[in-house]
Amino acid sequence: MIDMDNNELARDQEIENKEWIDSIDYIIENEGYERAKEILLLLQTRSQLKGINFTYQGNTPYINTIPVTEESPYPGSREMERKIKSIIRWNAMAMVVRANKESEGIGGHISTFASSASLYEVGFNHFFRGGDEGQRPDMIYFQGHAAPGIYARSFLEGRFTEKDLENFRRELKPGGGLSSYPHPRSLPDYWQFPTVSMGLGPIMAIYQARFNRYMEDKGLIAKSDQKVWAFLGDGEMDEPESMGALTLAAREELDNLIFVVNCNLQRLDGPVRGNGSIVQELESAFHGAGWNVIKVIHGQDWDPLFEKDKDGLLARRFGELVDGQRQRYIISSGDFIRKDFFGKYEQTLRIVEHYSDEQLEKLSRGGHDPLKIYNAYKAAVNHKGAPTVILASTIKGYGLGEAGEGRNITHQQKKLNEEELKYFRGRFGIPISDEGIGEAPFYKPAEDSEEMKYLLELRQKLGGFLPNRVSEKVRFEMPDHAIFKEFSNDSGGKKVATTMVLVQILTKLLKDKNVGKLIVPIVPDESRTFGMDSLFRQVGIYSHKGQLYEPVDSDSLMYYKEALDGAILEEGINEAGSMSSFIAAGISHSTHGVNNIPFFIFYSMFGFQRVGDLIWAAGDVRARGFMIGGTSGRTTLAGEGLQHQDGNSHLLALTYPSVKAYDPTFSYEVAIIVEEGIKEMYVEGKDVIYYITVMNEKYPMPAKPPCTKSHILKGMYQYRYEENNIHNLNLLGSGAILNEVIKAADILKSDYDIHPHVWSVTSYKNLYDDAREVVRYNTLNPDKKKESHIRFLVGQKPGLFIAATDYVKALPLSVATYFPGQFVALGTDGFGLSETRSALRDHFEVDAKHIVWTTLVQLRDNGKIDNSVLTGARKKLSIKSDKINPAAV
Fold first, then answer.
1. Fewer CB near the last or first residue (10 Å), C or N of the chain?
2. Residues 502-558: pLDDT tens digits?
3. pTM for the complete prediction?
4. Which distant-in-sequence residues (6+ apart) come within 8 Å of 48 by Cβ?
C-alpha cells in the first residue's frame, strides 16, 4: 500500500513538474525572456518570505552560454583564416625554439599562445579596432606569455623583420631585439600595457576602462564605443589583484570592458583546479560580482551530440567532471573517452555509438572554434550595462602533440626536436620542406599572396594595426608661476605642515586656467586625513551615476559631493586600485592625447611597501604623475604605531629607475619640486614619476634662501653656513628631522662652541643617482672626469658628516662613500611604536640630543675635543649607555 502511495505521489509530482515546465515554456515563447525572469524572481521572493532559503550558486550548466539557435554565421573565410593562424602559430613556436637553440636557457613560451591563437585571431580579424581613421582604438591587455604569437602576427603584417624575430629576448643585439613580454619601456611604439607581473593586467584593465569613462564624463574626450580587452590566464586569476576589483567594474557599469579568460586548465606546475572546475568557480565569482558571463566550452562538433541529449545527461556528465579528469581526456584514446566519459550513462553512450574513436579524440573545445568565439565576442561588444567575461575552454600546448599538448610540463616547453617540428608542420599544413626544418625556419607568404591580402585587408577595415602605442609629445602650457612663488615667503611665525602646503598647491592648480581640468586627485579614502575635504565641494568626487542621495552632511560647507564631472577619484580603502587609476591617468598623454596630471595621495607606508609591483609597472608603462606619501616619517606620524609609521619608502624608491624621490622639509622646497615636476613631465615630456613625502607635523616655515632652487632639485643645498667651522663639521637633515638637526646645530654652537654647517637633503635618491653615474662615467672616461653634485657642494677636503633621517640608516648610507671624509648615519631602523613624536625620536636616536651626542663622540674619537667634554655632555643630554636598541624591539 505504501509503495503504491509513493508511486502515485511520484506520478503526481512528475505531472506537476511538467505543468510548471510547460508554463514557463509558454511564458518564454509568448511573453519573452524578461517576463520569464520576472516570474521566477517573484517566485523566489515569495518562497523566501515563506521561509524557504536559497543558496546562491552562481553557476549555469557546463555548456556554452550562447545556444546554437542564437548564433550568427561567421563573417569571414574560415579556411583563409585557418591558414593565416597556422602560419602565425608556426612562427611563434619557431621564435622560441630558435632563441633557445642559439642561447641555452634564454626562455620563452610556446604553449600559452598555442592554446589562445584562435581567441586572438578572431579578435584581430573581426573585432579589435585600430586608430588610423581618427577613431579611438581599442585597448588590449595581451596575456604576457602569449607575446610570441603577437610578434608573429606583426611579422606577417610587415611591422617586424625576420631579424627582429631572430632577436627575440635579445634586446641588446645590434639593431635591437624583441622583449620577452609586453613592455612599453622596451618597445615604446608597440606595446601599450605591461601584463607580466601576473594579476596586474586585470586590475589595470578595470581601472583603465573606468578612467576612460571619467575622461568622457568630464568632457576631456568624446564619447565612443571604444573597448578595453584583457586576455588572461585561468591560473592568473588566483592573484588577488585579478579578482579584487570585479565589483567596481560592475558597480560602474563598465560595458566598455571585456575579459577573455583562457581556461586551458593548467598553470606552471599542473592543473589550476585538479579537484574542481575553474570555469564554474570563475563563473560563480563573476556572476556574484555582477558581470555578464559567457562560457565558450564546446566546439561545433559537440552541437549534434547535445541535440540528441534529450534528458540532459550529457550536460550533467560534464558537470560531474573535475578539471584533472578533463585534462586527462586530452591525451587519451577515443576508446578510453568512450568508456570513461560517455560510458557512465547508457543514454550518453548511445549518443556516440556511431562515432569512431578518432572522432571522439577530435571533439574540440570552444576556445579553439572560431564560430563559437565570434559569437561570444559579438555578444560581449553589444552587451549594455555591465562588463563581460568570456570563459573559453582551451587546451594548453594545442598542436604540440607528444611535445607537450595538454601535459603538465607544457608551460616549460621551449624546444622541439626535428620529429616534433615535422608533426607541428604537418598538423597545421605549413609549406616548409624537410630540408632545414630542424632549424625551425620562419615562414612568410609572398606579399601578393591571398593570405597576405586577406590579413591586411581586414586590419585596414578595422582601422590599422595593433598593438600600437602613441609616443608623440602633447602640447602643454605651464600653470601660473604665482601658485608656487608665494611659498618662497616665510609663514609669518604660523605653524604649517608640508601636507597642508601640498594641498594648498593642489587646490590652486585645480583652479588654474591652463591645467585645472587636467588635475586628477586620487585618494584611497584618506581625504580628510590629508585635509582635502575642502575639495569635495570645490571639484566634487567622480561618480558615473552622479549623486542619487542627499549626504548626511549636506548642510555643512564641506559636504560629501559626488558628481558626474567630479575631479577626485575616491577609491575607498584600496591602494592597488588607486595605483591602477594613477597609471591610467599617468599614461593618458599616450592613450588619449591629453596631459592629465595625477596626484595620488596616500599613507606613505602603504605605497612602495604595499603596491610596489604596480609602481614598477607604472615605470614600465611610462606613466607620469605625482605620488604623494602623506603622514610620512617613522617618528613624525605620532601614535599610529608599527604598521603605519613609514621608515622604508625612500629606501625602496632607490630601486625604481623612473622615480624621482623627494623628502622636503619646508614649503618652498615642496613648491619648487612640484613646479619642476610638472615642467619635466609635461613640458619636456619625460616619462618619470615624482614621489614626494609630506608630513602632518606643524612648524614655522622659513623664507627660501637665495640661489638654492637648482640645488633643491638636485637633492641637497646648504641651509646654514658657519664661518668658524674649524672641524669641517657638516650636519645633514631631511624631512621633519631637519628641524632636529637645526636644533642640534644650535646646541653645539651655544653649549660647546662648535659651529657646524647645516645641509638640507631633499633627495637622497637624486644624490645617489647622480654620484653613481659620475663614478661610472669617470671609470669609463678616466681622462674626462666629471664632478658629482655632492663634491660640487662640499668640496674635496675631508670632513665629518653626520646625517639624520626619519628613514632607515641605509638611505643616507647609500651615498656615504661619495662624501670626502667620515660619514655617520642616524636613522629609524626597527618597527614603529605608538608614542609621541618626542618619545619616538628619543627611542630611535634621531632627536637633537642624539645628533649632538653622536657629533661629540666622533669629534672625541678624531682627537678634536677632550674626553671631559663627552663626560659632561652625557649627563647634560641624558644619554643612557644601556638604552634599548630600537632596531631589536
1. N
2. 999 999 999 999 999 999 999 997 878 888 888 888 898 899 999 999 888 888 878
3. 0.94
4. 54
